[in-house]
Design a protein that fits this description.
This protein has 544 residues and is an alpha/beta fold. It contains 9 helices and 25 strands. The strands form 4 sheets. A 10-stranded mixed sheet has the order 6-3-2-12-11-10-22-23-24-25. A 7-stranded mixed sheet has the order 13-14-16-18-20-19-21. Strands 1, 4, 5, 7, 8 and 9 form a 6-stranded mixed sheet that branches. Helix 1 packs antiparallel against helix 2 and helix 4 packs parallel to helix 6.
């Protein structure tokens, strides 16, 4: 199947033999059929309208969010869920709910800008995706939602500067990997207090694995989790409920309310290490696409994403571009949906003809062309790629007997080399790659050709550690010295949990790696464990 080719035909064939799929319930079959023909999964256009005054419990239990800032436009999100750990969030089945919204220039809403009413539809699990246009560029706004007598928390968002703005400063944060059962989201609480223009989420927003009744590594004194979370996510209901669990965390809600997010996924939002339409266990693609459709739908429903990202069956165009004046262009990639299957059965393997096959792709041909053509048209000083898995080479040991991770770009070296050739062909000088996935903070120089260690440096890769995945971690990962010897372009490694901020200016970009001392107990302090700069026009990281 060629990249970007719709999986609809495969999906419809899967629907025809749903009776043989033991893991699908009758409800799951109905959902799959709805996806196949691109119809709502529940309810109809004639769904009954619920008077919001009848909602007896707070429906804004999962907070508010904003995303994908554009010049003069914001995307606002919320979900109505008075009982978030129940199917349908505790609202009457098949009912749509009017939701009022307000946008203002101040937190007290004395300087009102816009207000109106929208509908929370049962087809989208009573989530709201509100695109507000006609706003001033490069400005802060405050927003809230109202349903009956209930008012949501107040969120702050910020529009992007206009396309031709000669802006001289932009500060963003990058985050990734937040396994709920591995620890508290303390880092998000600190991130909520940072002054950043946007947060780039690099994947693994949730994990599909079962969460036991006591929340794994979290310590609960007043409640236990329902058994519904003590199973792997497979169905649409599973994924929806798992997002409810994750989004109920107060630190995560605070970060979403404080900053606009630009989202991309990695693997765990669907299933560990899947590749395109190939599941982790190499089972049937048609069956996996049913699961992927459920995962993609729940992802869009529960994230501050715009209409162009709304999925159609098991397909969802997540890669897109954000521009912040003339200072920065952000290319947000999807390295899961279109990639070739991992070589040699995945994991750490000795590279060879299979992994080095030029036909292998990480992004698919269409996305690859889109990325390089975007650089060709870019007028930005900084060109930033927001993506999931490690881009730079990472050999396991020094010498000739090294292995590489087949799930990272190392397992797709021809695909990486085409991207690097695109950097040279388009002449962009200031390339930054933002990465997640590995639960370690890294700073790396990007080489023009990793096969030639003496080749010139053409960019920098900043890897955000996890928010919680991997538990507390350590200051110095056990393999850090070995990796540093094997990879001279690796400038820094740190194994605690946290996030990274990147301040872009006219003359340099500065990355501050922020880490918390622990996630096994709440309230740990945050500190800057390392800072690096790269100068405009002079690629390469310098520690400061």
């Amino acid at each position: 199947m060629t990249d970007h080719q719709s999986h609809t035909d495969v999906f419809r064939r899967a629907v025809r033999d749903l009776g043989r799929r033991r893991f699908l319930t009758t409800t799951g079959a109905a959902v799959a059929l709805a996806f196949a023909v691109n119809l709502p999964a529940t309810g109809t256009a004639a769904a009954a309208e619920l008077d919001p005054r009848r909602i007896r419990d707070n429906p804004f239990t999962l907070g508010v969010a904003s995303g994908d800032p554009l010049p003069g436009s914001v995307l606002l999100w919320t979900k109505l869920a008075p009982r978030p750990y129940e199917t349908g969030g505790g609202l009457p089945s098949g009912t749509r709910v009017p939701v009022r919204w307000e946008l203002a220039r101040d937190r007290r809403f004395t300087k009102s800008v816009r207000r109106g009413t929208t509908l929370a539809h049962p087809e989208f699990d009573h989530t709201v995706h509100l695109e507000v246009t006609g706003l001033a560029s490069g400005c802060d706004y405050f927003y809230r939602f109202l349903a009956g007598s209930w008012t949501s928390p107040v969120g702050r968002t910020r529009t992007a500067p206009s396309a031709g703005a000669q802006n001289s400063r932009l500060k963003i944060a990058a985050v990734s990997c937040q396994a709920y059962q591995d620890g508290y989201y303390t880092a998000y609480g600190h991130l909520a207090d940072e002054d950043v223009d946007a947060v780039f989420h690099l994947g693994d927003y949730l994990y599909e694995y079962a969460v036991n009744a006591t929340g794994g590594n979290r310590h609960y004194t007043d409640r236990r989790l329902p058994d519904v979370f003590n199973r792997e996510t497979v169905s649409l209901e599973d994924y929806r409920l798992r997002y409810a669990l994750y989004k109920s965390d107060p630190d995560l809600m605070a970060a979403h309310a404080a900053h606009p997010f630009a989202m991309t996924w990695d693997d765990h939002e669907t299933e560990n290490n899947y590749a395109g339409d190939v599941p982790e266990d190499n089972g049937p693609s048609d069956a996996f696409l049913i699961r992927r459709a459920a995962a993609y739908r729940a992802y869009w429903e529960n994230q501050p994403l715009r209409r162009p990202q709304r999925p159609s069956g098991p397909d969802m165009k997540l890669y897109r571009r954000l521009r912040f004046g003339t200072l920065a262009q952000f290319d947000i990639l999807d390295t899961r949906q279109y990639r070739s299957d991992q070589a040699y059965g995945d994991g750490w393997q000795t590279p060879g003809p299979e992994s080095e096959n030029p036909a292998r792709t990480m992004t698919g041909a269409t996305q690859e062309r889109w990325l390089i053509n975007g650089w060709r048209d870019s007028r930005a000083l900084w060109n930033v790629v927001s993506q999931q898995v490690l881009f730079s080479e990472r050999r396991s040991v020094p010498g000739a007997d090294f292995k590489l991770s087949m799930d990272c770009w190392d397992g797709y070296p021809a695909s990486r080399q085409r991207v690097l050739a695109g950097v040279a062909a388009t002449g962009i000088d200031n390339l930054l790659v933002l990465t997640g996935d590995v639960h370690v903070a890294y700073a790396l120089d990007i080489k023009e050709d990793f096969r030639v260690p003496s080749s010139r440096t053409i960019g920098s890769e900043i890897v955000a550690t996890s928010i919680s995945s991997g538990h507390d971690g350590t200051d110095r990962p056990a393999n850090a010295d070995t990796f540093s010897q094997a990879n001279p372009h690796l400038r820094f490694a740190h194994g605690r949990r946290g996030y990274v901020t990147v301040a872009l200016g006219k003359h340099e970009a500065r990355a501050d790696f922020r880490a918390v001392s622990a996630v096994s107990t709440p309230g740990a302090p945050v500190s800057t464990v390392a800072s690096f700069v790269t100068e405009a026009g002079r690629p390469g990281l310098k520690r400061v």
